[in-house]
Structure formats: C-alpha cells, structure tokens
Amino acid sequence: MRSVSVDLNHDASLLIDIPDALCERDKVKFTVHTKTTLSSFQKPDFSVPRQHEDFIWLHDTLVETEDYAGLIIPPAPPKPDFESPREKMHKLGEGEATMTKEEYTKMKQELEAEYLAVFKKTVQVHEVFLQRLSSHPNLSKDRNFQIFLEYDQDLTVRRKNAKEMFGGFFKNMVKSADEVLISGIKEVDDFFEQEKTFLLDYYSKIKDSTAKAEKMTRSHKNIADDYIHISATLNSLSADDTTILFVSVQKVEGRVASDQELKLTELLRYYMRDIQAAKDLLYRRARALVDYENSNKALDKARLKSKDIPQAEEHQQQCLQKFDKLSESGKKELTSFKGRRVVAFRKNLIEMAELEIKHAKVSTVVVYLVSSGLVWSQQLVTFK
Amino acid sequence: MATSSERSPPPFPDSEDQDVLDSEEVGGRDSDEDDGEDLFMSASNPLLTEMDTTLPPASQPSDVLMKPPSNIMDEPLIEPVSSQTENKPANKVVSEPSDDFVDLTNNVTDSPDEAVAAESAVADDAKDTTEIPLDEPSDEFEDIFGSENEALQEEVLVADVTVEAATDNRAVTSGAIEPPGDGKTGSDDEQEAKETATDPIIDLSYDLPASVAQQPPPARDKCFDPLVDLLSDAPPAADANVPSRATVDLFEDEGTDLFTEPRQTKSATQQQKSLFGEADEDLFGEPLGATSKKTISKEQKDKPVKTKAASHVSNIGGPLQDNSPAEPADIFTEEAVTTLPSITSTSTVNSKTNGVQSEEEADIFAKATVELSLDSPRGERRKDVKAKPSASALSQSAAASLAKPQSAALEELEEEEEEEQGDKFDIFVSVKDPEKIGDGMNAYMAYKLTTETQLAMFRNKTFTVRRRFSDFLGLYEKLSEKHGPNGFIVPPPPEKSILGMTKVKVGKEDSSSADFVERRRAALERYLQRVVNHPSLLQDPDVREFLEREELPRAVSTQALSGAGFLKMINKATDAVSKMTIKMNESDVWFEEKLQEVESADQQFRKLHALVESLVIHRKELSLNTASFAKSTAMLGSAEDNTALSRALSQLAEVEDKMEQLHQEQAANDTFNFAELIADYIRLLGAVRATFDHRMKAWQRWQDAQCALQKKRETEAKLLWANKPDKLQLAKEEIAEWEAKVTQYERDFDRVSATVRKEVVRFEKEKARNFKREIMNYLACLLQSQQQLIKYWEAFLPEAKAIA
User: Fold this and answer.
1) Is the dihedral of CA A362, A364, A367, A368 positive or negative?
2) A:B CB pairs within 8 Å
3) Is the CB of residue A245 less than 8 Å away from at least one CB of chain B?
4) How many angstroms separate the CA atoms of B355 and B364, rounded?
5) Where is the signal peptide (chain A) (predicted)?
6) Distance (Å) from the C-alpha of residue B601 to the closest C-alpha of chain A?
7) Engineered SS bond to B667: which of A273, A342, B336, B619, CB 3.0-4.6 Å?
8) Would you say B393 and B387 are in contact if contact means Cβ atoms under 8 Å apart?
C-alpha cells in the first residue's frame, strides 16, 4: 500500500522501485532498482545500493541547478528515524519485571510491528522521491539523477563537514531574511500573488494539521497499548470473554492508529514538505524578479552615466529571460501541483474513510460476538 | 451425566441469542430455576422451546397418533396439579412430570409396545448419530434427558413436600421416580452403546417390520402409520382403520414380546430406563425432530418410533405403580384405557383419510403439551398451564418467539438479570438528585433516596428520604460494627474524598466536580443496593431506619478529622499489628485457598483499575487531540482553494468533531461501567478480607480462652498438690467458667467460619453476575459508539469521492 499517492504519470520508459532495504545500525541501505527502455542508460535493468545521504545529495544538486529553478523540486525524503520505536523498546525492557510474560510478548510484538511500519514508510518515502523525479519530464533527464541510478559503486557522498553544515545553516538564514526582504516587492503577476498568499496560508495550516494528526494518532496508539495491558490483566483474572474483547479491540484500535498514520498523517506530512518545495519555487521566482528589477535599475543608472550600457542591457535581458522562464514553468508546475494535491487528498481520504468503516465494522462484530459469548457463559456462571 | 461426553461445544452465537430470546419470552416469572438448571446447560433447552413453536405441522402426523390422547389427558391432569402446587417453586416441575405421566398413561392405552420403545431407543440413538452434523439437536436431546431426569427428581421432592398433591400424582411419581435415577444413566449408556453402532436406524426399520409380522395388523398399523406418513403416504396407512381397542390389546401383547427382545441386548434395568428416557424424548424429541426439518427422513422415522416409546413408558409405569402402593395410578391407567382408544381411532382415521394435513389440529395440541413440558424443565418461568393447551395461546407465543429479533440478546439478558434480582429481593434503591446544601466548607451534598419495594416489612411501597453522604458512611459504620464480627461481608461505601469534595464545596461548576458528584452518586446507589440485596443486612433495623425514617441523627464519627476518626485510626493500627502477630494455623484448606485467591484478585483488580484509569486518561487525550485536529482541519479546509476538497475537508472536520464526542462518551463509558465497577470490587474485596480477619480474631479468642483454661487447670493441680481446699473450690469454679467460655468461643468461631464461607460463596456468585452485567452494559455502549462511527464515516465517504 502506498502511503502517499503522488499522481505519477507512469512512464514505462523509466521505472524505479526500492525492492529491498537493509538496516545496519544507523545506516539504511536501499537497493534502488531501475527498469528502463531509455538509450541513455547502458542496461535496461539494474540495481544499485544507495544510502539516505545519497538521496539528500541528489536533492541538493537538483535544487542548486540553475536550470531547475522554475520547477518544484520534489521534497527530499526525511531522515530515517528509528529512535522512537527503539526508545520504546528500551523502556519496555526496563519495565519487563512489572509485566506478565504474556503482556511483555505482546508489547514487544506491537513494537516490532511499529518498527517494521516505520521501516516500510522510510523505504516508501525514498521510493516516492525517485519516482517523482523519474516521472518529471525535465528532472528525469538530469545527469546526476541518472548517475545516481546507474553508478554501481558506492556513491560515497562526502559527509557534510562542520563548515558546510554551518554554511548551510547560514544560507538558510540568509534565505529567510531575503524572503522577508523580497516579500515587499510588488508582484507583477496576479497568479503568483495569489499563489503566494495561498501557499503561505496553506503551509501554516497544514503544518498545524500535521502536528495535530500526529498527536491524534499517538493517542490512538496509547489506547491500543492500554488495551494490551488491560487484556493481559484480565487474562490473569481469567475473565476470558472480556480478554478476547480487549485483545480484539486492541487490534482494531492499533490498526486504526496505523491506518490514520498512513493515510492521513503521512499525506499531510508529505504535502507539508511539497508545499515547502513550492514555496521555494516561489522564492526563487521572487528572487529572479528582484534581480530583474535590480538589473533594470542598474540599466537606468548605466544609461544615466552612459557607462557599460550594453553590459547592463545584456544583464537586464538575461534577468528578464530568466524571470520569464521561471514564471512560465513555475505557473505550469504550480498548476500541476494543485491537481496532484487534490487527487492525492481524494484518494487518501477515501481510503481512510473506507478503512475506518472497515475497522469499526470489525470491532462491532467482535463486540457482538463477545457479548453473545457472554450470554453463553453467563448461563454457565449463573447456573454453575 | 454420561451424555455430557458427547455434548457438542457451545453453539454459535445465534443459537444462544435464540435461547436468550426464549428465556425472555418465557420470562416474567419467578426464577427459582436454579436447582432445575444447574446440572445441565440451560442453553439448549430454550432452543427446544422455540423450535417446537415453529414446528411445521407436516412433521407432526406421527405424533398425532399418540399425542392427542395425551393432551386430552393432560389438561385435566395438569390443572389440578398446578393448582395444588401453584405457589410452590417446584410446581412447574410437577406439571411437567404430569405431562409425562399423561403420556405414559396414554401410551398404555394406546399401544405401548415395549419392544418398539426399546427400538425407539435405538432409533433415538440412531438419530443421535445421524444428527451429529446438526450439533444442536443432539445437544438438546441430551439436555432433555437431563432435564427430564431432574424434573422427575424434583417431582419426588414435591410429592414429599406437598402433602396435598394429588394422590394419583404422587403414586405416579413414586412409581416413576424409581426409574429415573438409574434409568437415565441406563438410557445414556444405551445411547452410547448404540452410537458406536451406527446403523440403528436400519435396525429399527428392520425390527419394526419384524415385530409387525409377529403382531396382528393393528399393531403394525400403529407402528407404521407415523412412519409411513412421514416418509410417504405408503400403503401401511391403510391399516389404520383397524379398531384401536384391538390395537391396544395387541400392542400390549406385542409390548411384552418385544420387551424381551431389547432386553437381550441390554440389562433389564437399562431397558426400563431407556423406556423412561424415551418418554422424555417423546415429549421433547418431537419438537426436536421438527426443527431438524423433515428433510431427514430417517429422523422422522425415529420420531414416530419415539412416540411409541413414550407410550410404552406408560406401560412400565403401570407395573411400577402396581408395585408401589399407589392405587390411583391404576385407576388412572384404566381411565386412560377407556377414554383413549376412541380418540386414537379417530385420529388414525383422520390420518388415513385426510393425510398429513388433517392432523394439524391434533398437532397443535401436541405442540402445546410439548411446550409445556419444555417450559417446566426450564423451570425459569412457568407459563400458564391452562393457557398453554389452547391453540391460540400457543400460536401467539410462537409468533412472539419468532418475531423477536435475535439481536436483542444484550438487553434481554440484562432484563432477565434484573428480573432475577428483583425476584430475589423485591427492593430497589435509587440515589438521585445530588444537591449542595450550605456554603463554604460547611457545605455538604444531600441525595434523594427512593426505595421501591414489595416487601411486607416496609410500610409503604415507595418512599423517599434525603440523606447526606456522611449518613451513608454512618450506616456502614453501624453495620460493620454489628455484622462484621459475625463474618458477614458488609458492602463498603465509596471513600471520603477530601479533595473531590473540597472542589465541590468551593463551588466550582466545572466538569470535573460534576463528574465527581455523579461518580459518587452512582457509587452510593450501588452500595446501598448491595446492602439491601443482602438478605441478612436487609433485616437490620438500622438499614430500615436509614431507608425509611425522615430524620436521622447526624453521624458524627464519620468525619475524617474528628476525634472519632482519630480513634478509628488507632484502632486500625492496633488491628494491623495484631493481625501480624496472630499466627493462625489454618485447619481449613478452603479458607487458606480463598484468602489467597482474594488477595491475588485484589492485586489484579488494583492493577486493572490503574490501567483502566490510564485508558480513560488516554481516551480523554484522544478526544482533545481529535477536537484540535478537527479545528485544524476546518482551517485547512477554509484555506483550500479547490472547492470540492475544501468541502471535503470541512466535512472531515465535522466527522472528527463527532468523533471527539464519541471518544468522550466512550471515556465516560470506560469510567462508569468499568473503572467504577472495578473500584467497587477493590473495596468489596477489602470487605471480604475483613471477614477473614474477623474469623481469625474469633479463632484467636478461642485459643486465648483455651490457654486460660489450661492455666486454671494447672493452678488447680497445684492447689490440689498443696492441699488448699479453700482455694480449690474457687479454682474449680473458674475452670467451669472457662470451660463454658471455650465452648462458647469455639462455637462462635465455627459460626463465623460458616458465615464467612457462605458469604464468600455468595459474594463470588454476585460478583460473576454483576461483572457480566456491567460488561454487557459496557459492550452495549461500545457497540453503539462503533455503529455511530460507521455511520459518520459512511456519510463522509461520498464527500471524499466527490472531490474532483
């Protein structure tokens, strides 16, 4: 089941998937498998091992490529995070003494399942990242992307050193400051003006929703865990029917949690990142606009001074061209992004509603069965 | 019971529902069924009843042959019996046996071939085996045996107890009684034996013709008629018009003949018993067969045979009665003989001429009797005996039972439960309308206490008083002082909660204080109901006063910070110390085990309570989080520029809002139905442990007295040796005094032990019942909320799909 549907126009000429991943301590090694009919690749079918850092490298190079400034660069996959299940596992180990054996096993199973889910999700987001690249008409032709797919050795992407890390941080600071600065610029195109306000608004909302959805999901999980303990205790009280109830209810609750996580939280999370990418596009465009206006000013100045006029003119032309190009492709990208978002929401919301109904039905049946079971044992107990 | 070995596993829920249904249908009457039902599972019986109501007429013809007479006999017989014993708990049981009895008598006249009966036993077994796929029927079948068995035993009791019971009845019962005991087992054995050989049916079919060959045609007619009717309108039916009287005679002959035949295989006693067993089957087996549907022709074959079997039971009954001093029985049989033949003849004629359908009427009667007899073994609620035989009543009840939705299981169980309780105690206490009286720290909560009762010990049927919380505590103090040392489990009231009450006193109208008041109100109600449900505590004048008297002297000793409270604390501390110092060498394993059980249960309950509380907290958290998510989604929806998606998102927000409500309700459900219940039981378990402590104290007193006595004796010996006669007299007196004390204390200890034991058993029974009921409540709520959830999401689904 794909957690986030990104409406990919499945182009059979380049198919990418991650059939396998290996978790080695902190590193996760993904096997990236490519199937292609494109002549730019040497073989039609190949697999390479890649790490999370390689994905980040690919993303960064794409972002830095000037030609792609007018495109929404698919958001980079988040860093694999196995901390929370690990931490929980650790806690569980500490609390082992206070639990019955059964309870412990169940909790452990639950955690293992959670761990597995996290793992799968990680693989998926990485896969989706590559698939979005492969389905993009321009990005799929990127040289770095092709190298990423094809080069059968370790890419051995150099880890960022401290200076670079700091540089990145600094760049971010500059960017934010710049964003504030250029936000005052007068927009020449209504479309982008609208998009900007919309995306800004939408981003803050979706960020909020994501956080809330995460909380909600966590509460569901907590309840599922409570059920585990309760059923274990009931079991030791030998209240059999009720134990069955809680075991099953727990399963349902757990599934509700994981499905909500998958269908809702992941969706929101992904689009939060995607909107960030769209915002970046807008930023780049605004930057280009500012550049263009600056170049205009420079040209005016040059004309006043009658100095370096052709140079200034050329620069101004370049800026204009760049800006126009950015605007054009940005418009296209943003429109397609909108369509993509709606489709994805539709699909996920439908699936979530269906799953919720399914789970509720299951638990209805369970409750019903247990209650009729109680009717039965009721008589046993009463007349024993 | 031997048959239990082949009892199929608990049927699937549906069937259970049915049975609950049935019990309800029959419901409304007093529930002294316990003895009637404990031995076997009552579950399958109801099934029977329902089934028989649904009996397709077509399957009946065979029965009709035998049945109509029985019915006719039934009515007169039953009425007297029932009227005589009307008010006795066992009366239904009596009525049932009488049914049998009737059958028996009928059979005598009818044509009871023992042999056939024996064969029918075989047939039954055969049925058993054939029916194995149909688990339930076979189940019931055995149950029926069981119930019959009991019924008969009961009958004995009744006969003994009710002197005015009809003599004939008595005679019959006494006659019948003998067989039941071993008879049942015998039949069971037989069954098993038969079951191993799976071809009994074939045997039967062969046997029958054979027997017919031996006998004059009428007999054949009798045996075959039903068979044929059922299988197909085959020629043998034609024989039916042979004079029935003749048939009877012939049958009797045949009976004896055949009787021997089966005996060859089985021991004589077994035979008899099997016959008896068949009688049961006859009564009950019919409905059974009917339900299992005529599709199985074999079964049908069996059925007629069975009916025969029943008749031959009566035969047995005859001899038995003869042996026993009961003359009336004889008279009865004679009567039966005289009256029945004509009826049988008509019915046979009917069957001949009109075929299957003509017997419908007769069927109805048969059904009626069957149902009746079924009811009584169930013993839960006896239906009106008189009403039963009438076809209309039957059809009504049938309709009712059919009409009832199966899914109502939950509520019905509850109702049943309540009824039971009501029947037992006839008193309901409700605590309502908590009201804050006064201001500031002197404020207190007063509750309206309404009692509804049927008991004669109260002046009115309903009365209401106002009581404050400390009054409830005061009542507990008094009761535990009086009854605790005697080993009674005095239900404890909810604890004082200074924090909770302070909040209420300060007058904050927030949800947590409302929650607190409601929790306490419910706890008080449960506490009081437990008190009045206790047969001994109810008799206490203080309880009565508490319920009835307008003004109650203020209970002072309950204040936590008062001098009395301080004293109590000291007492408790000394108690705890003495508890530790007393080393009781437990003589009774039961107490040792129970104490351990109680202690571990206490621990588990405490753990469970903590868990449920955390569940509630998490659920409330979830509710909060859902609410904030809903809000956030609504915002997102408003920000969304795609109209359809925006709409869907705001719909989602609404769904989540409702979800929040559901979670909140569920949290309340968790609290009130589950956490509170557990809290109650933690308190109750404390009370149970207290009774163990009281028992230990009684023991200690006894031991101390013994020690003292020992010392006195030593002094006496010393005095004797020192030759001091003046003091000797005194010492002797003291010894006598202590001896009396020792015996007194020993008796006390024994009494306390007995009470504790009784109380613990009662407590456990109550606990099981209570838990089941509360869990059912809980489940009902859960079910409801899940259904709501489905509804909400289903409403949302089209919205999501509408996103373009």
Assistant:
1) negative
2) 179
3) yes
4) 16
5) none
6) 7
7) B619
8) yes
Give the DSSP H/E element, type plus range, for residue B185. helix B167-196
- The residue behind tokens 């106002």 is B466
Which residue of A lies nearest to B655 if distances are taken between CA atoms?
A353
pLDDT at residue B68 in the model: 39
| pLDDT the model gives residue B102 | 37
The alpha carbon of residue B487 is apart from the nearest alpha carbon of chain A, in Å, by 24
Contact list, A223 vs chain B (CB under 8 Å): 615, 618-619, 622
Work out the number of other CB atoms within 10 angstroms of the CB of residue B563: 10
pLDDT of residue B356: 38
Q: Which structure tokens are listed for B542? A: 């203080």
Three-state secondary structure readout of B47-91: HHHHHHHCCCHHHCHHHHHHHHHHHHHHHHHHHHHHHHHCCCCCH
Gap between the Cα atoms of B91 and B377, Å rounded = 11
CB-CB neighbors (< 8 A) of B642 in chain A? 338, 341-342
Quick one: pLDDT band at residue B359, thresholds 50, 70, 90? very low
Q: Please provide the DSSP assignment of A243-311 as one string.
A: HHHHHHHHHHHHHHHHHHIIIIIHHHHHHHHHHHHHHHHHHHHHHHHHHHHHHHHHHHHHHHHT-SHHH
Q: Residue written as tokens 């009729």?
A: A372
User: What's the whole-model pTM score?
Assistant: 0.58
Q: How far is A47 from chain B (nearest CA, A)?
A: 38
pLDDT of B461-482, one tens digit each?
778 888 888 888 888 888 877 7
As a whole number of angstroms, the distance between CA B364 and CA B91 comes to 24
Residues B221, B242 contacting (CB under 8 angstroms):
yes
Q: What's the pLDDT at A127?
A: 86
The label of the residue with tokens 């909040």 reads B503
What are B130-176's pLDDT values in tens digits? 333 333 333 333 333 334 444 344 443 333 333 343 334 333 333 33
More confident position, A85 or A165: A85
Tokens coding B405: 């939705």
**Percent of chain A predicted with pLDDT > 70:** 84
CB A364 within 8 A of CB B787: yes
Give the DSSP H or E segment for A36.
strand A27-36
CB contact under 8 A, A375 and B413: yes
**Which of these, A335, A78, A14, lies nearest to A195 by C-alpha position?**
A335
* DSSP code per residue over B204-237: HHHHHHHHHHHS-HHHHHHHHHHHHHHH---GGG
Identify the three-state secondary structure at position B768. helix
Average confidence (pLDDT) over A348-358: 86
Nearest CA in chain A to B601: A237
| Alpha carbon of residue B34 to chain centroid | 6
β pairing state of A27-36 and A14-24: antiparallel
Give Cα separations from B118 to A313, B66, B281 (angstroms). 121, 17, 12
Q: Residue B239 and residue B223: Cα distance in Å, rounded?
A: 11
Assign B223 to helix, strand or coil.
helix
Angle between helices B297-323 and B327-354 (to 10 degrees): 160
The tokens describing A128, both together, are 């989706």
**What is the number of other CB atoms lying within 10 angstroms of the CB of residue B129?**
20
Pairing of strands B427-437, A45-51: unpaired
Query: What phi and psi, each to the nearest 5 degrees, are found at residue A208?
Result: -60, -50
Q: How confident is the model at residue B665 (pLDDT cuts 50, 70, 90)?
A: confident
In sequence order, what E strands does B556-645 have?
none
Token pair for residue A89?
């596992």
Question: How much is the ipTM here?
Answer: 0.82
Residues 6+ positions from A379 with CB-CB distance below 8 Å: B41, B42, B43
| pLDDT interval class at A310 (50, 70, 90) | confident
Query: Is the separation of the CB atoms in A272 and A202 below 8 Å?
Result: no
Using CA atoms, how far apart are residues B686 and B476, in angstroms rounded to an integer?
Answer: 14
